[in-house]
Amino acid sequence: MSRSVLITGLGFVTSIGNDAATVSANLREGRHGMAVHPLCDNPNIAVKVVAPVRDFAVDSPSWRDWTWPERYELPRETLRSLAPHGVYAFCAFEQALADAGLIRADLGDGATGLFCASAGSALMLHHNLAQAHANQFERGNPMGVVSSIAGTLNFNLAAHYGITGAVAGFVSACASSSHAVGYAVDEIRLGRQERMIIVGAEELNADTLLPFAPMRALSVNPDPASASRPFDSARDGFVGTGGSVVLILEEASLARRRGAAAYAEIVGWGQASDGHSVATSHPDGAGLRNAMQRALRDAGVSPAQIDYVNAHATSTPIGDRAEAVALRSVFTEAGARPVVSSTKGLTGHGLSMAGAMEAAFCALALREGWMPGNPHLVHADNSCDGLNLPRETLSVAPSLVLNNSSGFGGSNVCHVLRRA
């Protein structure tokens, strides 16, 4: 376990920007990506606000209708088997490769692996099955399976980039891409791989988002400037978003040989389950508390050494309260007071891509020397008493940060990152 793991490349397609510079500027300046959206035009639907990705049009189930920024070249043979969120992933992947100083030929050495996270494409699955049912399964889309099921990212990206190392997909709801990051760290630590590429991606369409409405998980606040307000006493649910974020992790000696610049080092991670409910967090944040403690122990650091926590907080009443209780248990009761914020107040909730997205945000903050605030927080919930929840971004360089993720069934994953 003496092998160090560095983040050497990042790629972004998000509601707050489609490149690292734009994402960083919007995080630092507190500019959100929320908008009232045609997706919610039905007057009988209470949900009105989402956090869309700009400059892409992938709403159709036909790849022939999709558009994306001109600087990316997606070959027809790749497009035919992609899901809509696969387009986001491809473009973020290209960014991350360029950022790390890599080319496609570097990825087929067997020492480079790929871990992906997505829920698949409900849009494509519904469309393909509807067509098949209409003709009693006599005909169908030959790419229907690989373009729609949960492994669609790893199938397509591994084949397109010729990746011959470890390839797998992770499905643990909103903890999925955090699991991908954690297990990728272990692959490198254990000497199984020298480089791992992590991809998280999700679509934003009715099929993906609106089934959360009957669970009362979505915000019905019609104001884009306040619909997503983690930890606020008036929060009423999350705002959905889509996109993709890609991280490239490399063993430190490999990165040094290549002359690659590192954003941050991942020094530990931990996970634990609530064992409580299929859909809601343990009221005491028990699993998240254990995951944070295991991550700190793995990293060999104390609560007092953590400067910043990127909270999972999605702006739901139950989830945010449980996380606040867990944070107070791990930090406040130990006399520690790190800065805490949830960047979902700006981005919305990216579901299975959230953990990778926020790990990438932490990497930006570590390299550039700032800590995101909570710009939509007006009145903190009583459960947050004792937590350090600044409204504005702090121009203070953190040395160690903790990134939290939680998913359905009580899956909790935490990463500890250090300034490189």
CATH class categorisation of the largest domain: Alpha Beta
| Broad structural category | alpha/beta
Residue runs with pLDDT of under 50 for 5 or more positions: none
- Strands ordered across the widest β-sheet: 5-4-6-7-1-8-12-11-9-10
Tally of individual domains: 2
Name the beta content range: 15-25%
Number of strands: 12
Largest sheet properties: 10 strands, mixed
What is the CATH architecture term of the largest domain? 3-Layer(aba) Sandwich
Number of helices in the DSSP assignment: 12
Model description:
Helices cover 30% and strands 17% of the residues. Helix 3 crosses helix 5, helix 6 crosses helix 12 (354-368) and helix 9 (286-299) packs across helix 10 (317-330). The radius of gyration is 20 Å and the shape is globular. Strand 11 (400-407) and strand 12 form a beta hairpin. It folds into two domains: 5-258, Thiolase/Chalcone synthase (Peroxisomal Thiolase, Chain A, domain 1); 268-419, Peroxisomal Thiolase, Chain A, domain 1 (3-Layer(aba) Sandwich). The chain contains twelve helices and twelve strands. With 420 residues, it is an alpha/beta fold. The strands form two sheets. A ten-stranded mixed sheet has the order 5-4-6-7-1-8-12-11-9-10, sandwiched between helices. Strands 2-3 form a two-stranded antiparallel sheet.
Short description:
The chain has helices at 20-29, 76-79, 84-100, 122-134, 152-161, 176-189, 206-209, 252-258, 286-299, 317-330, 344-347, 354-368, and strands spanning 5-13, 35-36, 49-50, 112-117, 167-170, 195-202, 243-251, 264-273, 308-310, 339-341, 400-407, 411-419. The chain has 420 residues and is of the alpha/beta class.
